[in-house]
Description:
Oligomer: single chain
Amino acid sequence: MNARKHRFAWEAMVLAMLTGILSGDGLAEQGAYFAKKKYVPKPLPVFGAVKDKLPSPVYDEDPDYVRCYWKAWELAFRNFHEPAPQSGYVSQFIDAAFNQNIFLWDTCFLTMFCNYAHPYVPGICSLDNFYAKQHEDGEICREINRTTGKDFTPWVNREGRPLFSRWGYDWEKGQKQVDVIYKGRPVPTPAPRLTLDSLNHPIFAWAELESYRITADKARLELVWQPLVKYHQALEKYLMQGNGLYITDSASMDNATRNIYLESGGTGIDISSEMVLFARNLSEIAENLGKPRQAEQYRRKADELVGLINKLMWDDERQFYFDLSLDGRRAPVKSIAAFWTLLAKVAAPSQAEVLAAELKNSATFATLHRVPTLAADEGGFNPDGGYWNGAVWAPTEKMVVRGLENYGYDELAREIAMNHLHNVVEVYKQTGTLWENYAPQSVSRGKPSRGDFVGWTGIGPIEFLIEYVIGIKADAVANVVTWDIRSSKRVGVEKFWFGGKTVSLLSRQPDARQIRRVTALSDGDFRLKIKFNGRTKTIDVPANESVEADI
């Protein structure tokens, strides 16, 4: 049986005994730093009624890509929810529908493809419900009951002990409590509200900036600034090890072979890099909000942590980043966690070059379906998936692709995105649906994995289709759309929304001279940068005026 099946059996027992009400009792009001306090009821969007408002891709080269796109939206619409009465949630939300809980990092990735249907569907507002449940010390539980709004009971530190992991990494034997040992720093006081299992993958700020790129909604950044600052403070307080790096456990990647090396206070390359990313994101948000002092403060935090990661977690001999065990030894497992260093801009250019080479290495990460969560030459690698021991997951695909773009490896990023989407579409053609994860060494779903999963799997059929197959990326803050046309046939998108305007873009099939005609129509002014066949052209598109250009 897989890890989550064991987990669910144990969950059911715990919930039957405790009813999930323990968390929050006797504590100060949650959500004090988030200004939105009340849900204003409105009808949930219905796929049949909203479909005509969503971006409509045109890709004559392979209509199955378009069919898969619409299947992803159909599945997503099944997972839109209104807050349950008495839950304390303040916004409609999309949920992975994995179990009875909403999940922090799942929801962050769900918002990323929902950005392309803003403002017609619950997207970035799904994060509101986590901010509304933030504890007074800044902690946010990564898993909250969808109906009651209570923190998932096992992740609540009801014993009032110093930080510990309730699960550890021993999924086969059920519950296991592992105390976190801090080396070289005092034990933080007071005790945290939550357990270590709950405090990981701090990517709220990244999700907020991904949304800002599409919406240019500065008021949203103002709204979330204080919750993000408080959350960062809580993670610094409780997760920073004495070496300045950050602690995680099996909750980071459920059943991964790396987990045994993280026991009792080991530090993860993923969580440490994510804290660099968090600080960089806060710096960027502060700049946008006119807070130069705070922007500089978070830049310094990021730079200091980068220095520690490169000193302690980079292995010159093995040319890779590794987790550290509690005693400071580098773990021997080469996993996808290392590539968070690209997204967070931790790696120096020379290190990024080595990591990019690993992503092209068929012996490690360039599997048939890229990119596996565990290197193919590692012990424990499962060619059929094995959850976090080889499977290919949409969130880590997104992380790798964006990270490569940070260092100018745009072609490799596109190659990986296209590979992922191609395999997702092929499995969709075989099975008629989308899956939680995929096998790395065959064109098939991961074993184990859930079907009808959107879920973060929508990143491929929706976001990757728009950005890498059709080739459209928007920068709403700069009011610019960049269109990199690669298809040999008619391609484009109608009703593409960004920055408060709706745009239709269509490129006809090239003529005999390899000249393409592009047509653009928008209800608001914007600038269009077109790339095709090594040529570039920039045109200004006025509101409500059809513009044609040859390139």
